[in-house]
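Researcher: Next entry in the queue.
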Amino acid sequence: MTAQPKFRLGLLGSGKGSNAAAIADACLSGLIPAQVALVLSDVPDAGILERARARGLPALHIPPGPSRAKLDAAAEAAFIQALQKAEVDLVVLAGFMRIVGAEFLRAFPNRVVNIHPALLPAFQGLEAWKQALDYGVKVTGVTVHFVDQGVDTGPVIAQETVPVLPGDTPETLHARIQDVERKIYPASIAALARGEIRLQGRQTVWKRL
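Model: Structure for this entry, 209 residues:
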């Protein structure tokens, strides 16, 4: 019998790449039934590229253009072309600090996911752990979600809570949030790769095979 082709992931990131490393390691160990087909970054010396290359994964830097918040049209087209050439089934944003545009989302409909360090819809945007601490909530958390044209507004795939402890600083809270991220993101991607999640309107429906 011919082996089924593996589910293929494209990872995008701008920073150290801790979530990307967790996902790549889960693929290599078989916990995620998928392979990382390509790692892309908008930052030439980003840690995510170094971590990918250390694991023997294809990794490229694509210049993002002049905007600090989003990819310009040429850069977006280059990202799309690279991901399509790699035949990715799912685009995984792992600390990617730019907004992806409508053309990108049309190229990968309902196939772009992100992780956010808060319980959405609370504390959207940057440094959500600091927002939670400043607001004084007792519980925050992590959200894995599909990406739409808003900022942190796409349908929720999975969430997990993280308590805010007395004496927490932004650094200590963020560290505990990241520990949860490195568990919930690979688990969610594994479920997507196994076909256990489908999108029904704005609702994600999990089914156990």
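Model: Residues 155 and 202 are 5 Å apart (CA to CA).
Researcher: Noted, moving on.
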